[in-house]
Design brief:
Layout: H1 3-12, H2 16-30, H3 41-48, H4 55-83, H5 91-96, H6 98-111, H7 113-119, H8 125-135, H9 140-175, H10 178-213
Helix pairs in contact: 2-3, 2-4, 3-9, 4-8, 4-9, 6-7, 6-8, 6-10, 7-8, 7-9
Length: about 210
């Protein structure tokens, strides 16, 4: 049963500029305050990365995703700079939870630009830290350097994982078939769901750990 590899091949057959455009747009949206809780940027990146089958494709997607991630961070920073601490009392932040904003602000006070880098790997916090950095008047040059470093590492990691997953699926399909492949596919899906849920659940713990290290 080759439904998964057929789907991956269909995705790989799409025009590469279109894949890059959609992935970049979702990444930018996810990294922007507010939109980040609606846009599945990380999931889209992993899926799109299954089309990466060569070094040139890897480099192009790496560049596009990194630039879009930094752009999204910069928009969040600008909003924080523009509206300041008033964002904490905004309807959007109240909906997310003021406690998350307070944690992001405290993390920035303790760790400075390092918090911008670390937050890139935290699904919830990375949406709030850029705006909080702007509100706290963190120097943009320091913010930008940390944002670039985080975006480059984060995008390389996810593109690598997605590309490896796509290659592995095709290899497994050539070895297994029928019921065995169905079980393998189900296991992969369950594994991805468990990892994503665990990452969201552990976000608060990661923030607390960083605060204790400070």
């Amino acid at each position: 049963m080759a439904f998964l590899t057929d789907a991956l091949e269909g995705l790989a057959g799409l025009p590469q500029p279109a894949v890059l455009a959609v992935t970049g747009a979702l990444t930018l949206a996810e990294c922007t305050l507010g939109v980040g809780f609606l846009a599945p940027g990380e999931s889209a990146l992993l899926l799109a990365s299954t089309t990466v089958t060569s070094v040139p494709r890897f480099l192009v997607m790496w560049l596009v995703v990194s630039v879009c991630a930094v752009a999204g961070d910069s928009i969040g920073y600008y909003l924080g700079r523009r509206f300041g601490d008033r964002l904490r009392d905004s309807k959007l932040v109240r909906r997310m939870g003021r406690q998350h904003w307070d944690k992001a602000s405290e993390l920035l006070r303790r760790r400075g630009a390092w918090a911008v880098f670390a937050a890139r790997f935290m699904p919830v916090v990375r949406t709030l830290v850029p705006a909080s950095a702007g509100a706290s008047k963190l120097e943009y040059r320091r913010f930008l350097l940390a944002s670039i470093a985080g975006a480059v590492c984060w995008s390389a990691l996810h593109i690598g994982i997605g590309s490896a997953a796509g290659a592995s699926a095709k290899y497994i399909e050539s070895v297994f078939n029928g019921a065995m492949w169905v079980l393998m596919a189900v296991a992969v899906v369950i594994g991805v769901v468990v990892v994503l849920r665990r990452r969201k659940r552990d976000t608060a713990a990661e923030v607390k750990e960083l605060e204790e290290v400070a």
